[in-house]
Amino acid sequence: MVSAILNKACKKWGWIDSVPYIRKFNESNQRLRWLTPEEVGRLIPELQPHTRYIMLFTLATGLRGSNITGLEWNQIDMQHRIAWIHADQSKNGKPIRIPLNDDALTILRKQIGKHQTRVFTYKGKPIEKAGTKAWRAGLERAGIKNFTWHGLRHTWASWHVQAGTPLNVLQELGGWSDYKMVLRYTHLAPEHLAEHANRLNGIVAKSVAPDNVTKLKAR
């Protein structure tokens, strides 16, 4: 976060001449916590409608909480089924183009007419933060432990990989600038390697064909 602020202060605002070096600590190997469809099914009825819609929109798009709560209608083109996050709103400082699937469009249609500018609201006012006390209470009632709002983005990514979405496509969908970030999900779909492993099918078999085995025994 500090690095992001300094980069913006230098490159965008011109407040400083250069960005000082900040040594980063290695990230921990902590397991990524994601929800199963069954857990999501338990959680949905425990949430108030406005929180439920934001959660489901996150699972449909993979957007970060701040990008969703700050989403405005002028960032959405429902006819062409896309939304976009401006460069100054994204974590990597680049604009993100978000394709909207049927689930996302269904949720958006339910928000039409609630506010002139912002998409997601509560009692007529824009929602400023996701993952509130009410969200945590819903998790507790649903019996879901060790889970945070950001885990919804991990859930979206995990479901994509399990459904066969290539990692390079997932990187673009999620707006990650570093490919290492999507490699965290590789273990969820090891079958994607099977296709490439099978390209060597037959080579070993030919090497140990019956005739060759007989020659080896003779030696």
Automatic annotation (TrEMBL):
Domain Tyr recombinase: 30-198
Record keywords: DNA integration, DNA recombination
Gene3D superfamilies in the cross-refs: Intergrase catalytic core
BP GO annotations: DNA integration; DNA recombination
Xref: InterPro entries: DNA_brk_join_enz (IPR011010), Integrase-like_cat_sf (IPR013762), Integrase_catalytic (IPR002104), Tyrosine_recombinase_XerCD (IPR050090)
CDD domains assigned: INT_Rci_Hp1_C
Pfam families assigned: Phage_integrase
Signal peptide bounds: none
GO molecular function: DNA binding
Domain of life: Bacteria
Listed PROSITE patterns: TYR_RECOMBINASE
Keyword Protein transport tagged: no
Descriptive protein name: Site-specific integrase
UniProt organism field: Methylotuvimicrobium buryatense (Methylomicrobium buryatense)
